[in-house]
Amino acid sequence: EAQVTQNPRYLITVTGKKLTVTCSQNMNHEYMSWYRQDPGLGLRQIYYSMNVEVTDKGDVPEGYKVSRKEKRNFPLILESPSPNQTSLYFCASSFTGNTEAFFGQGTRLTVV
Amino acid sequence: KNQVEQSPQSLIILEGKNCTLQCNYTVSPFSNLRWYKQDTGRGPVSLTIMTFSENTKSNGRYTATLDADTKQSSLHITASQLSDSASYICVVKDSNYQLIWGAGTKLIIKP
Q1: CA nearest to A90 within chain B
Q2: Least CB–CB distance from B43: residue in A40, A50, A106
């Protein structure tokens, strides 16, 4: 089944403790991206990647890191999480930046 | 500033009725416009993608329209079903590969 898989689905952590949210797609998509969604706001792009080893900042990259060492995986790294990074995170993939995007199920992160 | 505004913020209709959701944008230059359906707590699912030259696109009971001159789009849902209850999000892509997301319209279908 074609899908985008994020892990974990739920995570509660403390301020400053490094964490990684994994994202994997099995559709051989070139384009992958990370979003955060907060109540009352539209999804905001954190980082995107147009291909392996190519990443770029989205609208709200501060406090986040990504890597794209292989086509299928695009992990999101929070080196020192803070409470304002409490949010619902989505990973998405598509063949290109112009085609339909497929989203993961989301990761609900709480930083206390 | 590139913006996407949707209206209404929320809408309640009876099962079987039709409804139309609106999207106005100020994104320039424009590449394409997308409508997504998002069930509560789940990832968005694509309904339609329209480029500058397309005026209408359908996906089952969903029909999206685009007026690139006035920078307006609408999503019309015909014969609504309970499963249509969700947030509907308008997304505009500029030519720099940036996606600008609207805040969405929350649609509730009542039996």
Answers
A1: B43
A2: A106
